[in-house]
Amino acid sequence: MNIGAYAGRAVLTAIDIVNTGETDSGHDDLHDADRVAELLGHRGWVVPTPPSQADLTRLLSYRDTLRQAFDSTTEHEAVHLLNHTLAALRALPQLTEHDGHWHWHYAPPDAGIADRVAATTSAALLSLIASGGHDRMRRCSAENCSNVFVDFSRNGSRRYCSSTACGNRTHAAAYRARQRATDT
Fold first, then answer.
1. How far apart are CA 116 and CA 98, in angstroms?
2. At residue 104, what are phi and psi to the nearest 5 degrees?
3. What number of other Cβ atoms are within 10 A of residue 26's Cβ?
4. Domain chopping of the chain, boundaries
5. Could you tell me which residue ranges the Zinc finger CGNR domain spans (predicted)?
């Protein structure tokens, strides 16, 4: 499944935002302006100053909407949530080339980083859904992992947010369980 580099980057940003929730350490990255700037910068967002407290609060609220979209059982439910976000932000798609190549902006130029992220990631997820990708918006199958991911694999069979972490851990645990069963 290919939705394009720009939309793909926005989808990965949405995944990153959902997966910022409290980890084993009990730390929620969306409460830390420097961490949010780092997370967004990693995905190519221009964050000239650390996000304000208002931006952090808006991102926390938006994360809940994103989580609901990933957990939705129907594409209609996800579309409703994401369309509602775009309507609330009064998103108006505009083509721009301010950094040397054409791409879409969905939020007004004076919008804060949280609203720009919410508008762009909502539009990208809607594009994914429109191309038949709702069933590829998933939650990790590993026990004790609540991360989300989008399965971009050719055959759509990915089950874990990370094959090297959750996948390996799950397969190793299954192997140990089989070994214990044959030892008795």
1. 15
2. -90, 140
3. 6
4. 5-183
5. 136-179
What is the signed CA dihedral for 95, 105, 130, 21, rounded to 10 degrees?
A: 160
Give the predicted TM-score (pTM) of the model. Answer: 0.86
Distance between CA atoms of residues 16 and 13, nearest Å: 5
Instruction: Collect all residues with Cβ–Cβ distance below 8 Å to 31 and sequence separation of at least 6.
Output: 56, 60
User: How many whole angstroms separate alpha carbon 133 and alpha carbon 44?
Assistant: 23
Longest alpha-carbon distance in the chain: 67
Range 93-123 burial, b when 16+ CB lie within 10 A, else e: eeeeeeeeeebbbbbeeebebbbbbbbbbbb
CATH code that applies to domain 5-183: 1.10.3300.10
pLDDT in tens, 51-99: 999 999 999 999 999 999 999 999 999 999 999 999 999 998 999 887 7
